[in-house]
Amino acid sequence: MQTTQRKNRNRVPARGKMRNETFITLLMLAILIVLFTVAAFFVPNFATPNNIRNLITNNWYVIILGIGVTFLLITGNYDLSVGGVIAMTGVLSAYFCQAATDSRNELAIGLGMPYGLAIALALLCAMGIGALNAFFIVKLKVPSIIITLGTMMIARGIAKIITRGAQRNTSLPEVFGVIGNVSVPGTTIKISVVIMLVLVLLAYFFERKTVAGKRTYLIGANAEAARLSGVNVDRHLTMLFIFSAFLAGVTGILLASEFKAGISSRAMGYEFDALVITILGGVSVAGGFGSVLGMFIGALILSVVTSSATGMLLSPDWQFTLKAISVFIAIIAQGYFLSRRKT
Length: 343
Prior knowledge:
This protein has helices spanning 2-9, 20-42, 49-57, 60-74, 82-97, 115-139, 144-163, 191-209, 211-221, 223-228, 233-259, 270-280, 292-311, 316-342, and strands at residues 167-168, 262-263. The chain is mainly α.
């Protein structure tokens, strides 16, 4: 039954009829416009150019995470380890390049590696978490939601051990704080935002124009059928898990550089924010349906919701509640309008 539903969602439309994925993306874009209009009416200075720019740029980190989470969710898998991987990678990048000098403060002593080598090793460690996820999920057939929750705690535990539950922010080379704070010449837009936009464009190209991208949807629609069609499902899923961890590692390095510290508590809850924006963008939790562009619109919806809640001086608890309400409304709206298109 579930397989039939997935096939229906991806059925080739009749001539002149819009694809379901395009329809859902446009639907969420319309919801974004409505939410922005309402927020602009109730929240002072919400529609100013500066605030609009912030809505797009302030959530660069969750959008980068959302790319990997989107592809995995399309295959019917989850990755809840990304928040822990961010913390671990940021802490390791700091620890690896901290000066290896004598100090009474153990958190000021590192391995003294060159910054480039420190970053490379930290990213390899991040990808190691992705490989660990893939091993248990692909080879041992353990549900992804269980394994990635476990590896999230392992990664964050490593970060806490190295920082003793605090942070490493001393004895760092000057270059450590450059990439996370440098801006595009003549603007206030950080390089992190540019990296995010480039990654989104590359992910969209991968999704729409490559054979591997089409295989991702085929696996999500019916993994067994994909396997019988000659797709190496295990290898494809392994690469997607490693890629998702790599993106989390890149995010961790950029955030550590921005704050000039490796902080063990960094990115608490980011894994759920990444999942929220994918669902808001129309990615199906059952797999086989969704898009990176939809995820990007979902991130803007989340940004509008949280920014307007802040502008109305709502507490963080209410902001969390609004996120949950937004997800419920998105799922109901997407399901309702898709069912209407079938009748």
